[in-house]
Amino acid sequence: MIAAGLLLLAVGSVDLVRQMIRSRRWIAFAAAAVALVVVSAGLDAVIAGLLAVAVAAIWTWVVPEHGPARAGLWPVALLALAAAACVVIAPGRVRPGVLGEMWTTYRPADAVSVDVIVLVVGCLVFLLESGNAVVRIALRSEMGGRVVPDETATPTLKGGRLIGPLERILVFVLTLAGAYTLIAAVLAAKGIVRFPEISRDGDGGDRAEYFLIGSLVSWVTSLAAAFLVWWGVHAG
Asked: How many CB atoms lie within 10 A of CB 136?
């Protein structure tokens, strides 16, 4: 479980760095890698931390910041399989390292383990900017050479980069909390807000198709992350 959390944390951190820092990124990448390895060493999972850093480095190459992904949806599928495999192979640990021992000592009696905390944090970080990358890959793979709305100068969809992460985190948290009625309300509200814009779509239907594909992929990503945490908790 700890390996899955570190894996998603590394990939999510890389995409956040690419989004927030424009110059001398290698310094931020190096600092993030060192910090992740140090934390993983404190959790007695240094090998998992090093592997997570390696996977994040590969992710930056196969999933570029601009333009189509070099391998289509394969990197996303392989990352999902790797995270699931980490949960299956190592669901829980008896010795969680120095940081884990500190958490065990000072946490409330009914709190979850440090491995679950790392997995939840990794999922949240991944859903922020890496979730946008997943949606972008799916859109460009499905719509081919057509120009999707977020690649134009139209200002009406610029809030998507902020709305998407907030929506994914909200669905993720509500799913773990079992608030399925609230999830349905959130999804319905998004459809109502976007309906006037979609209704003005032309004969090609590109905007409606963009909305449906992007929304479904975003929701599936959140639900998959929530299922991974649920699986890790029950497997451990």
From this structure: 22
